[in-house]
Amino acid sequence: MFYVYVLKSEKTRFLYMGFSNNLKARVVAHNSERTSREFTQRNKPWKLIYYEAYFSEQDARDREVALKKYGASLGQLRKRLKRSLESAG
Question: What is the pLDDT confidence band of residue 35, given thresholds at 50, 70 and 90?
Answer without folding.
Answer: low
